[in-house]
């Protein structure tokens, strides 16, 4: 029996991985969001006969959500989020709180037998958007960097807000009255504790910077960090999700300073794989919950179901754009208008445009955190099955409705990142780093050294000067361009093409040596890795 169970589990895992890979290929060819396609695939599989996978909220909250949030935090910019911190807090804290309370009061008022605490618990579960689908589509559609930062920053912090509110609401639903002031006080205590826990984990990992130079050790520590941050925070009853996010933001910011090059390359590759598989599993799980949740509605009349769903979906879809619009009307003295950013050291309160507000409004897709959160409700909560269904409908409406239409909307709005500005920024930084290297060579030149070292310095100087000249020509071309797109440079493209073909010829020759028996496989892998790193370092045309 155990063998049969083990074989079934293995088949489900292999089938899931195959489906995730297939959907990724379809998404790349069609431009459709993989999250929506995986959800549809999960629904389809759930309707077929055979074993199904039930969502275990504790497992998802402990082993799936922390790694996903941690990797998102590693890829985020601490400086950009800090620059837009008022906007991020407006979306990830205040908007989540308002959404949860409005849904709570709506359920309490319009659904007979429901309580305010149960309604707030539902509101907290569906309030936080899951940015995975929106970011994937937004990046592919060329969404401007500021909007990417806002979506990313909101998605990192809103889960902590929602889950903290949910914890308070569940406690009230099980034996007490829901008090907004009391809930607010508990929320701030849990949030502050979560920030402190994240800072502690980041500080401890910084102390291990010497052993993080080894790639395998760095990978092991990196994979363990989100789980450690989550467990530390939850053990002292503060926000584990916020601890994971804070730790990830700080560690990602410090990584260039405290990690070795090989460690960063390998850790980045490992996290891309983990993120790819976990995200795929998450959206498949969402789809597979549909039949089970629908079966729970047998004891409810249709009018109750329609009312509860209308309140939940209506508030979820309407409050976000209203909030974004109203925050544009705040007085400049409050320094909280959306879109405010630092320019030349001064805070400029440039409001978001109507097109940007529309895009952000449509980026509110909900995901697995909403389902995992609502599934943690104890059986004693009134209308628990109905709340499950309401949360599922919100997830499906936003994930499929907004997810499938987000890319066409972005294109219709004409929102595109200024690729020429981004390319100019990168090339200016490249040129600055080369000048710093030439200055360091001047310092070395003044020190005592022999003729061998002198030749090495001269050779390196020629390489750097050629590189600096190439970057200067590239910058001149970018400065003369009036377009938002990166102008082509025949010399630049030709140089990259030649280098890639040379590397390809070297790799083919090594394989011929191995096949002829003149080079063993271990040596081949070492030499091949050298060429792989050289090829990986080749820049794209930007």
TrEMBL record:
<keyword id="KW-0472">Membrane</keyword>
<dbReference type="InterPro" id="IPR006153">
    <property type="entry name" value="Cation/H_exchanger_TM"/>
</dbReference>
<keyword id="KW-1133">Transmembrane helix</keyword>
<protein>
    <submittedName>
        <fullName>Na+/H+ antiporter</fullName>
    </submittedName>
</protein>
<comment type="function">
    <text>Na(+)/H(+) antiporter that extrudes sodium in exchange for external protons.</text>
</comment>
<feature type="transmembrane region" description="Helical">
    <location>
        <begin position="227"/>
        <end position="251"/>
    </location>
</feature>
<keyword id="KW-0739">Sodium transport</keyword>
<comment type="similarity">
    <text>Belongs to the monovalent cation:proton antiporter 1 (CPA1) transporter (TC 2.A.36) family.</text>
</comment>
<feature type="domain" description="Cation/H+ exchanger transmembrane">
    <location>
        <begin position="18"/>
        <end position="411"/>
    </location>
</feature>
<dbReference type="InterPro" id="IPR004705">
    <property type="entry name" value="Cation/H_exchanger_CPA1_bac"/>
</dbReference>
<keyword id="KW-0915">Sodium</keyword>
<feature type="transmembrane region" description="Helical">
    <location>
        <begin position="271"/>
        <end position="293"/>
    </location>
</feature>
<feature type="transmembrane region" description="Helical">
    <location>
        <begin position="60"/>
        <end position="81"/>
    </location>
</feature>
<feature type="transmembrane region" description="Helical">
    <location>
        <begin position="6"/>
        <end position="23"/>
    </location>
</feature>
<keyword id="KW-1003">Cell membrane</keyword>
<dbReference type="InterPro" id="IPR018422">
    <property type="entry name" value="Cation/H_exchanger_CPA1"/>
</dbReference>
<feature type="transmembrane region" description="Helical">
    <location>
        <begin position="88"/>
        <end position="107"/>
    </location>
</feature>
<keyword id="KW-0406">Ion transport</keyword>
<keyword id="KW-0812">Transmembrane</keyword>
<feature type="transmembrane region" description="Helical">
    <location>
        <begin position="30"/>
        <end position="48"/>
    </location>
</feature>
<keyword id="KW-0813">Transport</keyword>
<feature type="transmembrane region" description="Helical">
    <location>
        <begin position="305"/>
        <end position="326"/>
    </location>
</feature>
<feature type="transmembrane region" description="Helical">
    <location>
        <begin position="386"/>
        <end position="410"/>
    </location>
</feature>
<feature type="transmembrane region" description="Helical">
    <location>
        <begin position="185"/>
        <end position="206"/>
    </location>
</feature>
<keyword id="KW-0050">Antiport</keyword>
<dbReference type="Pfam" id="PF00999">
    <property type="entry name" value="Na_H_Exchanger"/>
</dbReference>
């Amino acid at each position: 029996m155990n063998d049969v169970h083990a074989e079934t589990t293995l088949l489900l895992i292999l089938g899931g991985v195959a489906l995730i890979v297939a959907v990724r290929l379809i998404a790349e060819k069609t431009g459709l969001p993989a999250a929506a396609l995986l959800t549809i695939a999960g629904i389809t599989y759930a309707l077929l006969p055979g074993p199904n996978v039930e969502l275990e909220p504790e497992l998802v909250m402990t082993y799936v959500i922390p790694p996903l949030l941690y990797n998102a935090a590693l890829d985020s910019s601490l400086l950009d989020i800090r620059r837009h911190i008022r906007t991020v807090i407006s979306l990830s804290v205040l908007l989540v709180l308002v959404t949860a309370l409005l849904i709570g009061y709506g359920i309490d008022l319009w659904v007979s037998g429901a309580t305010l605490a149960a309604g707030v618990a539902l509101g907290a579960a569906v309030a936080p958007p899951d940015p995975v689908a929106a970011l994937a589509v937004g990046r592919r559609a060329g969404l401007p960097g500021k909007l990417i930062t806002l979506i990313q920053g909101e998605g990192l912090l809103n889960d902590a807000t929602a889950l903290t509110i949910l914890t308070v609401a569940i406690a009230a639903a099980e034996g007490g009255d829901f008090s907004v002031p009391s809930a607010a006080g508990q929320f701030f205590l849990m949030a502050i504790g979560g920030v402190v826990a994240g800072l502690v984990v980041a500080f401890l990992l910084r102390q291990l910077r010497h052993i993080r130079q080894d790639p395998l050790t760095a990978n092991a520590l990196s994979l363990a960090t989100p789980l450690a941050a989550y467990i530390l925070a939850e053990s002292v009853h503060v926000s584990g999700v916020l601890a994971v996010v804070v730790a990830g933001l700080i560690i990602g910011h410090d990584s260039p300073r405290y990690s070795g090059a090989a460690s960063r390359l390998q850790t980045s590759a490992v996290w891309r794989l983990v993120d790819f598989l976990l995200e795929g599993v998450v959206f498949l799980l969402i789809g597979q919950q549909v039949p089970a949740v629908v079966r729970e509605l047998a004891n409810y009349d249709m009018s109750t179901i329609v009312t509860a769903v209308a309140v939940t979906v209506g508030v979820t879809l309407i409050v976000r754009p209203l909030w974004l619009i109203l925050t544009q009307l705040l007085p400049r003295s409050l320094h909280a208008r959306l879109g405010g950013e630092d320019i030349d050291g001064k805070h400029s309160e440039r409001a978001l445009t109507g097109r940007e507000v529309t895009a952000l409004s449509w980026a509110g897709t909900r995901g697995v955190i909403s389902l995992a959160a609502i599934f943690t409700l104890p059986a004693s909560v009134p209308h628990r099955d109905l709340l499950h269904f309401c949360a599922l409908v919100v997830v499906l409406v936003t994930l499929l409705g907004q997810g499938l239409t987000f890319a066409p909307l972005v294109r219709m709005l004409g929102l595109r990142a200024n690729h020429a500005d981004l390319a100019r920024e990168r090339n200016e930084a490249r040129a600055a780093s080369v000048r710093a290297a030439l200055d360091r060579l001047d310092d070395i030149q003044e020190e005592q050294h022999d003729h061998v070292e002198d030749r090495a310095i001269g050779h390196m100087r020629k390489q750097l000067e050629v590189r600096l000249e190439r970057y200067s020509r590239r910058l001149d071309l970018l400065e003369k361009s009036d377009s938002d797109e990166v102008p082509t440079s025949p010399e630049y493209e030709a140089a990259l093409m030649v280098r890639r073909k040379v590397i390809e010829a070297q790799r083919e020759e090594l394989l011929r040596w191995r096949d002829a028996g003149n080079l063993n496989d271990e040596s081949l892998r070492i030499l091949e890795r050298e060429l792989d790193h050289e090829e990986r370092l080749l820049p794209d045309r930007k």
